Amino acid sequence: MGLLDSFEKGLERAVNSAFAKTFRSGIQPVEIASALRREADTKAAIVSRDRILTPNDYVVRLSPDDTQRMQALGRALNEELLALLSSHASTQGYSFAGPLAIAIEADDKVATGTVHVDAGSAEGRVSWQGVVEIDGRRHPLTAARTVIGRGTDADITITDAGSSRRHAEILWDGERAMLRDLGSTNGTKLHGEKIREAALPTDSTFTIGRTELHFKVVPVTTPSTTPRGGLS
């Protein structure tokens, strides 16, 4: 697509066109977007076969004059940068270690028209958690064996007449998951196919009765500092 890929073009359309008069000289928003993407790519680390972690806390350092120009946009610039960096991470298969935050700060040592980005490394602060999502509600897998069904004694209870009281279970060892049907009346489907027992990779969808359940493996962190965001 030439010098600007779709990530950069999205910011150019959403921000530059609306605030073109603000940026007659100095840094351009599209350059900030590119710098954030490069930093995310550079700091991305493979932590397992199917998990790539990238920092979630970014500080954009600009000259005082450029910072003043960016502040003229208020929240618009920050919101676009957050959305577009999230989209880039999703496209690349990256996971953030926590809530994404981008701060823009003035730095006398940075020349006008240039941008420096520092990203906080999440190395050593991340654990991985298996979760089941049902109708937007997330249920963490806190035990090695999690029973799902309509019975009150199930670990995850679903109100579905097509499910058995103890319909299926997920076995989770902290890295891998297995889905097992517990002799249910109507069976358990994984990606539309009935199974008795099958590996359950992240981003899998399985069905109990008429209920769709989504299994994911997500990063869990305890923030060491208060996340930053917005323009400083």
Largest sheet: spatial strand order: 8-7-17-16-13-14
The number of E-state strands comes to 18
Radius of gyration: 23 Å
The number of helical segments is 4
Provide the helix percentage. 10-25%
Alpha-beta content class: alpha+beta
Characterize the overall form. Answer: elongated
Mean pLDDT: 82
Beta fraction: 35-45%
The largest sheet is: 6 strands, antiparallel
Spans where pLDDT lies below 50 across 5 or more residues: 14-24, 224-229
Kindly report how far apart the N and C termini lie. 33 Å
SSE run: HHEEEHHEEEEEEEEEEEEEEE
Question: What can you tell me about this protein's structure?
Answer:
This protein is elongated. It has four helices and 18 strands. The chain is α+β, with helices and mostly antiparallel strands and 232 residues long. A hairpin with a 2-residue loop joins strand 1 and strand 2. Helix 2 runs parallel beside helix 4 (75-92). It has a six-stranded antiparallel sheet, with no helix packed on it. Strands 10-9-11-12-15 form a five-stranded mixed sheet, with no helix packed on it. It is 22% helix and 37% strand. 30% of the residues are buried. InterPro entries: Cell_Proc_Reg/RNA_Proc (IPR050923), FHA_dom (IPR000253), FhaA_N (IPR022128), FhaA_N_sf (IPR042287), SMAD_FHA_dom_sf (IPR008984).
How is this fold's topology laid out?
Layout: H1 6-16, H2 29-43, E1 45-48, E2 51-54, E3 57-62, H3 64-71, H4 75-92, E4 94-96, E5 101-106, E6 116-120, E7 126-134, E8 137-140, E9 145-149, E10 156-157, E11 168-172, E12 177-181, E13 188-190, E14 193-195, E15 197-199, E16 204-208, E17 211-221, E18 230-231
Parallel strand pairs: 2-4, 3-5, 5-18, 9-10
Antiparallel strand pairs: 1-2, 3-6, 7-8, 7-17, 9-11, 11-12, 12-15, 13-14, 13-16, 16-17
Helix pairs in contact: 1-2, 1-4, 2-4
